[in-house]
């Protein structure tokens, strides 16, 4: 039975390789090196799968970079390459392997083997030479702890396991100077040398989920709960100076401003659809909230994700248009200014578009 499964997976992989080869020869328009403001996004082009795209803010041009069954992960630190994941079938099955490609969709390279590790959360090393990711070890018997943190060079060399196996995965953040990794496991925080070694526990009395490191490397932010309450916590890389930001208990996906002074987030809500975009100032604790259906966000019914532009003057977000049923209409990419005084619709494909990341500036 196992041999039949592997033969089938191998056949599917061969089919996907043929499809990819045909796609790479297709006459798609490619972005140039002068395209500074590119937004990476994912478009749901099938029932349960999609493809990777970029949007040029200056020209309004959309560029398709992959065929279906691919998902966008993130840009490399210098904005020259993109980490993507690939599924082997169109039924919502988890992404099977990681690849890197140039920012124009060319020169793809396979990083992980779907027979060995299924990838989860992944991040680039600061120097852009490696990918650090949570993965499921497929060589471990089902029912045993199988999650671990792995390291793989972008040259496609064999993966290296950095941590012991655990029952579940968690958050992952790499220091801007590339020296260490902070990760969560079962709600607890751990610190790990970037080149591997024994992880040490950070004495932080909260349960943390997703993590994000400030660009200046002085703080981390994460959504969690503890004796101070539930919301967004910030703390030093050693676990010191822990404090709960005044976010009215709101907690969702967080994005640091480029100057490390503000955190952009959406409110946490059932089903992932949020009614509120929020910005909290780290120094003054000032909280500004912007609600869909009001002000500049009046045309929107819900928001799912928001990210800063590289210069901190713009925000790209995924939203649903208010005139449609918020749970039965397509999502588009929108842009607002830092003060959220205007709203500009960027994509309108009548498919589901989801913003991933603004292209970093070298």
What does this entry look like structurally?
The protein is mainly β and 362 residues long. The chain has a domain at 272-362. The chain is built from one helix and 28 strands. The chain has one helix spanning 2-24; strands at residues 38-44, 51-56, 62-64, 70-75, 81-86, 97-102, 109-110, 117-124, 130-137, 147-153, 160-161, 172-174, 180-185, 188-193, 200-201, 206-213, 220-226, 229-235, 243-244, 254-256, 262-266, 276-281, 287-291, 300-308, 314-321, 331-337, 343-345, 352-358. It has a four-stranded antiparallel β-sheet, with no helix packed on it. Strand 16 (206-213) and strand 17 (220-226) form a beta hairpin. The longest helix is centred in the first third of the chain and has 23 residues, at 2-24. Residues 1-35 have low confidence and may be disordered.
Can you give me a brief rundown of this structure?
The radius of gyration is 20 Å and the shape is globular. The chain has one helix at residues 2-24, and strands at residues 38-44, 51-56, 62-64, 70-75, 81-86, 97-102, 109-110, 117-124, 130-137, 147-153, 160-161, 172-174, 180-185, 188-193, 200-201, 206-213, 220-226, 229-235, 243-244, 254-256, 262-266, 276-281, 287-291, 300-308, 314-321, 331-337, 343-345, 352-358.
